[in-house]
Amino acid sequence: MPDYFALLQxxxxxxxxxxxxxxxxxxxxxxxxPDRIHAAPDAxxxxxxxxxxxxxxAWQCLREPKDRLGHLLELELxxxxxxxxxxSAATMxxxxxxxxxxxxxxxxxxxxxxxxxxxxxxxxxxxxALLTDRLVGLQQLALQHQAELLADLKVLDAAWERPGPRPLxxxxxxxxxxxxxxxxxxxxxxxIVQLSF
Length: 197
Fold this sequence. Notes:
Number of strands: 0
Number of helices: 7
CATH topology of the largest domain: Topoisomerase I, Chain A, domain 4
Number of domains: 2
Order of helices and strands: HHHHHHH
Strand content: under 5%
Distance between the termini: 42 Å
Radius of gyration: 22 Å
CATH class of the largest domain: Mainly Alpha
Low-confidence stretches: none
Mean pLDDT: 92
Structural class: mainly alpha
């Protein structure tokens, strides 16, 4: 298993400064980009392409808190985090409300797709706008919840290097919660985009 922290020359910690990670990625990628050796033999070009792909994978992983925590847990535990689900009531409420509102949006979108009358489609515009407003409101709640979890992550990061066992249980809890929030945000954004057409 590759260590993406080492590839991007970052400390193996729960919190990383996003701007610092991006700057390091850009600096390293400009050094090893395959286009820099266009006149090299094929084997060297292939190796450079592989190194660049690994560096890009590291960037994709470490820039997202959820993915970074999953990778850190995998490195610390030697395996993927368990599938056990221990999720807060607030996160579950958000997740269930996301599912309910997305199903409502899907039903509306299905009805709209089957509608052929331009007049009826025009009348549906208001309903679509109301659904979009509700989704945007839910998106704001999800973003607020995500911000609270990221604040908790910064607190955990401060305790990361203290003597004694590392707080892996708390790290795993935050990983799970961030996973649920990220899924909710993705589903909400997808419906907002679909309703805009």
